[in-house]
Amino acid sequence: MGLGQSRGGWRGWSGLLLVSLVSVSIMTGCGLFGSPRVAPPAPMPQPTAAPEAYLLLRLKERRLYLVENAVKRPTEGYRVAIGQPKWPTPTGRFQINELVENPDFLAFDFNDPKKPDRGRIPPGPNNPLGLRWIGFAHAHGWQVGIHGTAKTQVLGQAVSHGCVRMANPDIVDLFPHVKLGTTVVVEE
Prior knowledge:
Elements: H1 2-28, E1 54-58, E2 63-68, E3 71-83, E4 92-95, E5 98-101, E6 105-106, E7 120-121, E8 132-139, E9 142-149, E10 158-160, E11 164-167, H2 168-174, E12 183-187
Parallel strand pairs: 1-12, 3-10, 9-11
Antiparallel strand pairs: 1-2, 2-3, 3-11, 4-12, 5-8, 6-7, 8-9
């Protein structure tokens, strides 16, 4: 009887101990009977995309800037010629819609663009579009763009038919930094 009591007593205590451990485990979330709880990882900051580069043309300054990450390049801007009062360079927000290296030029009558054209001028030193063409708007009955010129004496003046003229070395420098869809902002 004494032996049975101690066995029954031991069984009673071990059973009570087991029930207590299970109860504590359930209430406290102890990892005795399952995997331990792991705190979720702290949120990692996600890299933000750099803003797209864009062109900023300031007509009063007669300067064109490439703006990358809020920095103007070149800081002094590219010197340009703009549209004359009869055919002003359009203002607003546009997107580049055409990029041409060594463009040809379709000669036409700027006073009446509906007249038959006068032929094409091939790429080269006599081409009025210079070494590169960046089309971005339509105005006055034709496409308006930024293009090169060998006649750098006109830079800083309002002499074109709406287009923006740049020195050939400047537009060659700018050209690889833009793509179709690049924004062009034209301000007074």
